[in-house]
Design a protein that fits this description.
This protein is an all-alpha fold and 104 residues long. It contains 1 helix and no strands. The termini are far apart.
Length: 104
Amino acid sequence: MPMTARLAQTLQEKLGSEGAAEMITWFDETQRGARQELRELNELNFARFDARLGERMAALEQRVSERIAGVEQKIAAVDAHLLKWVIGLWIVTLSAMGVLKIVK
């Protein structure tokens, strides 16, 4: 944040030109250092957040894969059960048709 003209003028009145210049330089350097520290801290926090997010996404992906595999197994079991019923019904139908043909 740049120094306001009013603050610079007040510093110049109280400290003189040289003192105000040194104070402004010190403020600027302090601010630059704080910004750099904040930037580094933000990058570090983001790296940790990104790592945790990656771990959680991997765990979520694993759980979803397990659930999908379970659903696929249940569907396969239902398919096999339905296939047995279809074959059984065809046998009954064909048997009934054969009996009706013999009776006629």
